[in-house]
Amino acid sequence: MTNNDSTGNIINHINKTRLGIIMVKCLNCKRELTKPKKTWTYSQFEVQAYSCECGTNFREYTMDGEHSFTLQLKKGRFVKA
Fold this sequence. Notes:
Elements: E1 3-4, E2 10-11, E3 14-16, E4 22-25, E5 32-33, E6 38-42, E7 45-51, E8 57-63, E9 66-74, E10 77-80
Antiparallel strand pairs: 1-2, 3-4, 4-5, 6-7, 7-8, 8-9, 9-10
């Protein structure tokens, strides 16, 4: 889910620094994560799995370098975040 700021720009939990490093924020505690636990290709998607110290597990799906959707582990199943 994305939100818009006062200027209409989309705000989400993925930020790219000036050096090109992608910073992903935990969906639960908002801690910045830089390195995925695991990365793989699923059909046309690049998938990055993250595990935060707070216990939140989630997967980022990107296609052609653009964020497509996020799945979060809840009650043993991954659901759209």
